[in-house]
Design goal:
The complex is a heterodimer of chains A (325) and B (324).
Chain A (H helix, E strand, L loop, with lengths): L4 H26 L14 H9 L6 E3 L5 H7 L3 H9 L32 H15 L5 E6 L6 H12 L4 E7 L2 E2 L2 E2 H4 L7 H4 L4 E6 L3 H16 L5 E6 L17 H8 L3 H11 L5 H24 L21
Parallel strand pairs in A: 1-2, 2-3, 3-7, 6-7
Antiparallel strand pairs in A: 4-5
Chain B lengths: L1 E4 H15 L3 E5 L15 H5 L4 E3 L4 H13 L3 E5 L10 H15 L6 E6 L14 H4 L6 E3 L4 H13 L4 E6 L7 E4 L12 E4 L4 E5 L3 H14 L4 E5 L2 E3 L3 H11 L2 E8 L4 H13 L8 E5 L8 H7 L3 H12 L2
Helix pairs in contact in B: 1-6, 3-4, 7-11, 8-9
The chains are: A alpha/beta (325), B alpha/beta (324).
Chain lengths: 325, 324
């Protein structure tokens, strides 16, 4: 199975869009224009872009907080995302939530709770619904390396495996959970080993190679869609920024970052596209200009959008409000 | 009209909703082939099949999370906690995911969590707890606790049809001890509405769950002494039916709040606060709380009886209030 040229160019576009959006968010955060924190996927964009792009329209994603690519690919616009960071009324959640706490079922995206791996059982439940109803849809759930230590990771994986549910579990193994390195998180070498305990197939991929992530996800989705049960995909990558933008990450050895910098997923992809004559410099530059323009427009939109009213915070607690007599 | 038990009422509500709506399904430990620890789902597996009556791994957080995910994509799952005590293992999914989905990002989460709760069954600390207090402080959840077979059926149906997460507290002590006449036709009991279990004039007893029956017994004895009690059965704990609470306070001016949950920071504390805050001028005496003692539930019958509020506790509280 080979990826088509148009798919490869789309993957490149989304890598760029994710990087530029989050880079801009980082700058705005340092300028004090963004409330709260700013968590980015810098250096690991190929993971969310790869598994997000492999989804079909009616599939469901239950992402985690370094999955910006998924939001964009599913159709949640950069404008709405930027407005979300600004706490504006036009943001994805109308200001109820900030930054990467994005969910919108109109685009098949389940909201992300900060409690890592909570979306493993939740994604499993979406897959269970598809199975009960006999629909050819799949779910994908993602967490980081740290999240795989939590009970919900194991409970979700086990339930999905026992019932052979149409779900694929992604792990963005970016080496650090906040400041905690892998060797203090687990005593195994590969997180994929955890899947073995549930009788689940697993795959380890280069998380800085978007084509590899995309192809592995696509293959696992097809297995799940056709009744073959869940797969666990460990994407090995490296978080190049701090846990969030307030964190200088001085606990990460400089040499490690230098080494991974050479494997940057966007440079990787550019090189691949040019060396294999799939695209030319001019074409890639025009994609990048399109991306730059989109981010500028998104920022302008967010800046100009109104803030929510204080009383909006009293609305929407219940989907079925208690009826007044 | 037919007479059925509290447990049969729960079973009927589930059966009728499963038959009515294909998006309803049940999941939990031992609910399928075995029919549930209390036999509530007995026969359902044969009737509805293994994909609508799902035996799950022993994994409360996992299957509660799965119920949430299924609900987000259009199902109406009913989770059975084998004993309400085990709901603590699913605390995070209920409190951080189910309760906040709709407010945070618009994800309606229509799940029902059946929680067989309460003591008086010599179950000890891990099979007797009242769990409503754990969740009472969580905005976004709804909590109901029927005290009659009629309400058990009607509230469960309402909970299943509701688009929010509902914790349905079913009292184990009542399962086979009480009966009601139930109409043949479909009915629901609306969430958020208390009922007057007994009309009276001198003192209001505000309560819910199995304690409604304790209150009724006490009221009967008090009636013989010429004291008329009004009993309010809250039925919905979250959100509280403030209007019904305030109406009875304004009528009798004397209030006892009674529950089986432990006292400190419990539902009764909130009810008392609401009354002092909004009905202070109507009070002719202090609000008296009667609740379980602030310890884990003890096993030995003698100690458990002392732990759970008894009729005599209600009698002495009411008699004290009457003297004001």
């Amino acid at each position: 199975m080979d990826a088509k040229r148009e798919d490869l160019l789309q993957l490149y576009y989304y890598l760029k869009l994710t990087r530029r959006l989050e880079d801009r968010v980082t700058s705005l955060y340092h300028q004090g224009k963004i409330l709260g924190g700013a968590w980015t996927s810098n250096g690991t964009e190929a993971v969310s872009v790869g598994f997000g792009y492999a989804l079909e329209k009616n599939d469901i994603a239950a992402p985690y907080f370094r999955d910006m690519g998924v939001f964009l690919i599913r159709g949640i616009t950069a404008k709405r995302i930027m407005a979300q960071y600004f706490g504006k009324k036009t943001g994805v959640t109308g200001g109820k939530e900030g930054n990467v706490h994005i969910g919108d079922l109109n685009f098949g995206v389940i909201g992300f709770p900060s409690h890592l791996a909570d979306n493993y059982p939740v994604g499993t439940g979406a897959a269970l619904a598809f199975k009960i109803r006999g629909e050819k849809r799949i779910a994908v759930a993602c967490t980081g390396d740290g999240g795989t230590s939590r009970g919900d990771f194991h409970e979700g994986m086990n339930f999905a495996a026992v019932r052979k549910l149409p779900i694929v579990f992604i792990c963005n193994n970016n080496q650090y959970a906040y400041s905690t390195p892998l060797q203090l998180q687990m005593s195994i070498k590969n997180i994929a080993e955890r899947a073995l305990a549930y009788g689940m197939s697993s795959k380890i991929v280069d998380g800085n190679n978007v084509i590899e992530v995309y192809m592995a996800a696509k293959e696992a989705y097809e297995i799940a869609r056709n009744g073959g049960g869940p797969t666990f995909i460990e994407c090995k990558t490296m978080r190049m920024h701090g846990h969030s933008e307030h964190d200088s990450a001085k606990y990460v050895p400089r040499e490690l970052l230098d080494e991974w910098k050479k494997k940057d997923p966007i440079l990787n992809m550019e090189k691949y596209l040019l060396e294999n004559n799939i695209s030319q410099k001019a074409e890639l530059e025009s994609i990048d200009s399109r991306v730059k323009k989109e981010i500028e427009e998104a920022e302008a939109f967010a800046e100009q959008s109104p803030y929510p009213e204080p009383e909006d915070g009293m609305k929407g607690l219940y989907a079925t409000p208690i009826a007044e007599e | 009209m037919r007479e059925i038990t509290y447990l049969e009422a729960i079973k009927e509500a589930l059966d009728e909703e499963l038959a009515r709506d294909p998006s309803v399904f049940i999941l939990g430990e031992d609910v399928g082939i075995y029919g549930g620890a209390f036999r509530v789902t007995e026969g359902f597996y044969e009737k509805y099949g293994e994909w609508r009556i799902l035996d799950t791994p022993l994994s409360e957080s996992g299957f509660t999370g799965a119920a949430i995910g299924a609900a987000l994509v259009g199902m109406r799952p009913v989770v059975e906690m084998q004993f309400a005590d085990f709901i603590s293992c699913a605390f995070d999914q209920l409190v951080n995911v189910a309760a906040k989905n709709h407010y945070r990002w618009g994800g309606a989460t229509p799940i029902v969590v059946r929680a067989p709760y309460g003591g008086n069954i010599h179950g000890g600390a891990f099979h007797s707890q009242c769990i409503e207090g754990f969740f009472f402080n969580v905005a976004g959840l709804k909590i109901v606790a029927p005290s009659t077979a009629y309400d058990a059926k009607g509230l469960l149906k309402a909970a299943i049809r509701d688009n929010d997460p509902v914790i349905y507290c079913e009292h184990k002590y009542l399962y086979r001890r009480i009966k009601d006449s139930i109409p043949e036709e479909d009915y629901v009991v609306p969430i958020g509405k208390a009922r007057i279990a007994l009309e009276g004039n001198d003192v209001s007893i505000i309560t819910y769950g199995a304690m409604v029956h304790t209150a009724l017994e006490a009221a009967q004895a008090l009636n013989e002494k010429g004291i008329s009690c009004e009993i309010i059965d809250l039925r919905t704990i979250l959100p509280l039916d403030k209007k019904s609470i305030f109406t009875t306070v304004k009528k009798t001016n004397k209030v006892v709040v009674l529950h089986e949950q432990t006292k400190t920071g419990g539902v009764g504390a909130e009810v008392s606060s609401l009354i002092t805050e909004y009905c202070f001028d109507y009070l002719d005496g202090p609000i008296i709380r009667i609740a379980a003692q602030d310890t884990p539930v003890p096993y030995s019958a003698q100690m458990e009886e002392a732990f759970i509020p008894q009729v005599k506790d209600v009698l002495s509280a009411v008699e004290k209030l009457i003297r004001y």
